[in-house]
């Protein structure tokens, strides 16, 4: 008797385990943070793109952990380089919010400091001063502006090196509970990292903040004015564009910071102009109180081309 083997149906393969990255993105709420960033800062396309890449990496790591895959804790210490007024502090604040919403820091919390907040004035003063700042920053982000001032090799008695040694320990041993962002001018930051390779090896993300173009600075000034219910009439916008072109070429230009100062000076001149007209019997209406005219801008020393033109306006 022949016994025929009856083939058994192969067990169906289990469906692949998947995760919905779009849902993770939506539920995290970081889209709101990106919207804030776009509303607060004109331009900076390379910086914003890099921040989105970092956020995407962290979202994918969260998805991997949810599926039981290995996802080692990424290094999140950063370096922000660029000239003054390019938005480094604002981006650091939004970075803290993103990291908090994605669960990589405990608090949506940023402590911004400079050398003076960390370095003591005598022996035994620096370590407790630095550790106090670190204690306040734990669970969030520590932003150290002009970080290269911590390193002064020309002064053997400088205490900044002690701060760097403490930072090295904290950035390595407590990187799961503190993100450090070192910021400053690009050339000086490069020299700082070359002189302190231990710090350089702990910084995973380097973001370079470009200077703003004239059109971007014009938009920034209009945005700053609109936030406080001011506006520029058409001749004033033309004068402002010319002002920006001249001001960029002068020393001590600080991008958005200089444009904020220019707006403040224009408001002073507008106020003086309105008071002069009021003394002659004029009564300003709502529109005139809101409007900055070309004469309020062209009265700047920047247009004179003389010695005072180099003075920040």
Describe this entry's structure for a reader.
With 313 residues, the chain is α/β, with parallel strands linked by helices. The protein has 14 helices and seven strands. The protein is globular and about 75 Å long. 29% of the residues are buried.
What is shown here, in short?
The protein has 14 helices and seven strands.
Low-confidence stretches: 1-6
Shape: globular
Radius of gyration from the alpha-carbon trace, in angstroms = 27 Å
Helix content: 40-55%
Number of β-strand runs: 7
Order of helices and strands: HHHEHEHHEHEHHEHEHHHEH
Strand content range: 5-15%
Largest sheet: 5 strands, parallel
Distance linking N and C termini: 107 Å
Class per helix and strand makeup: alpha/beta
Q: Roughly what is the average pLDDT, rounded to an integer?
A: 89
Q: Strands of the largest sheet, in order across it? A: 2-3-4-1-5
Q: What is the number of helical segments per DSSP (H or I, 4+ residues)?
A: 14
């Amino acid at each position: 008797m022949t016994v025929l083997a009856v083939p058994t149906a192969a067990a169906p393969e289990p469906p692949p385990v998947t995760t919905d990255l779009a849902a993770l993105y939506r539920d995290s709420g970081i889209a709101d943070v990106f919207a804030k960033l776009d509303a607060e800062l004109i331009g900076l396309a390379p910086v914003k793109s890099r921040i989105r890449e970092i956020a995407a990496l962290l979202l994918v790591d969260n998805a991997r952990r949810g599926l039981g895959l290995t996802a080692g804790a990424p290094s999140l210490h950063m370096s922000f380089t660029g000239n003054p007024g390019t938005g480094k502090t604002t981006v650091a604040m939004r970075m803290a919010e993103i990291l908090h919403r994605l669960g990589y820091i405990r608090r949506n919390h940023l402590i911004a400091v400079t050398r003076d907040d960390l370095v003591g004035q005598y022996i035994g003063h620096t370590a407790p001063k630095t550790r106090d700042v670190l204690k306040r920053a734990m669970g969030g982000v520590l932003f150290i502006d002009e970080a290269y001032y911590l390193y002064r090799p020309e002064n053997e008695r400088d205490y900044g090196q002690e701060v760097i040694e403490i930072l090295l320990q904290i950035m390595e041993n407590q990187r799961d509970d503190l993100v450090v962002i070192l910021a400053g001018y690009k050339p000086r930051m490069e020299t700082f990292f070359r002189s302190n390779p231990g710090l350089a090896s702990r910084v995973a993300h380097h973001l370079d903040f470009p200077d703003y173009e004239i059109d971007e600075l014009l938009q920034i000034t209009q945005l700053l004015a609109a936030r406080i219910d001011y506006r520029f009439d058409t001749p004033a916008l033309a004068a402002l564009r010319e002002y920006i072109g001249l001001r960029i070429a002068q020393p001590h230009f600080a991008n958005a910071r200089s444009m904020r100062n220019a707006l403040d000076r224009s408001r002073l001149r507008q106020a003086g102009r309105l008071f002069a007209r009021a003394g002659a019997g004029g009564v300003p209406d709502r529109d005139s109180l809101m409007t900055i005219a070309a004469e309020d801008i062209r009265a700047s020393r920047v247009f004179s081309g003389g010695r005072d033109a180099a003075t920040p306006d």
